[in-house]
Design brief:
Strand content of chain A: 5-15%
Low-confidence stretches of chain A: 2-6
Oligomer: homodimer
Mean pLDDT of chain A: 90
Number of strands of chain A: 3
Order of helices and strands of chain A: HHEHHEEHHH
Structural class of chain A: mainly alpha
Radius of gyration of chain A: 20 Å
Strand order of the largest sheet of chain A: 1-3-2
DNA sequence: CTGAATATTTCAGGATGTCAAGTAACGGGG
DNA sequence: CCCCGTTACTTGACATCCTGAAATATTCAG
């Protein structure tokens, strides 16, 4: 019950944590907004984004979205009902179903990425050196 | 069908955008995790956090959470059922209900903030100057 | 071939979110 | 003072997201 666990956090760190919270909030706002412009929910947009390169097994989608596989079933169902995604058998393992973006799905995914202007517009105000510095700082944070 | 709309985004900006995406993902993970440790959902934790300073009208909660007021009703209902929040009349306007954290609610909110160690642990690897630089860069991003 | 493990789906149920309609209270103009 | 438009909150119906347990089909090791 000592104060060991929260050993006097310096105000600068607190401020940076707050700023990161603001960045997170704003990123989310803009992401949901961009998704809504394409009549997608956030979860649907995230899943569709994962399929933009190649078909992906349901299992892996669940891992990447950090949710249960049974949840992925529903999201893919809805995207499939709208013709943006299709299920294909995996030739190598008949248990597996691959979710693949249709041509229309890829088009929507592309439009989505383009309208995702967060951190593009804000970053425009930074010089190249500042962007480099920001990149390095973020890298080091994420490596920790 | 020209490339006008996406006028050649430089790789550095793309990388920084990606890094910010990773930060957002990680922040969310840890936030949900911290909330779950206190048997709260993310939405419940966010709302409780808004009440840690002072009672807040339902209306304002909806604005700050960026959702419909009818949604706030349900979240407060669940927190109230668990004794973490209570509804009080606003002496100045009988239409308004103020949501206020109970003593127990404040305790949980405090514990929540303390277990929110993201960006505390990662920031530990940065020097004071680096933290200052990061703060300034984030500020400028958010001001834009 | 048999049995344990894996991939997906289905179902029940809770939480979050929207929208439309209803109730209560405020507040200004006759 | 009363009416009426506005505001604050709640309710109900409905879609989505998410979990956990059970069912089905397939793989793979022994």
């Amino acid at each position: 019950m000592s104060t060991q666990k929260t050993p006097r956090i310096d105000p600068l760190t607190l401020e940076v944590v707050d700023l990161i919270g603001s960045v997170v909030a704003r990123y989310h706002e803009e992401y949901e907004e961009a998704a809504a412009e394409h009549a997608l929910t956030g979860a649907q947009a995230r899943l569709l984004g994962l399929l933009s390169m190649e078909p992906v097994p349901m299992r892996r989608l669940a891992q990447q979205l950090k949710c249960e596989p049974s949840n992925v079933t529903g999201i893919v169902d809805r995207l499939e009902a709208r013709g943006l995604v299709e299920r294909r058998p995996d030739p190598a393992d008949r248990r597996v179903k691959l979710a693949a973006a249709t041509a229309e799905g890829r088009k929507v995914a592309r439009g989505l990425r383009e309208s995702l202007n967060f951190a593009r517009e804000p970053l425009a105000g930074l010089s190249d050196e500042e962007r480099l510095a920001l990149r390095d700082l973020l890298r080091r944070m994420l490596d920790a």
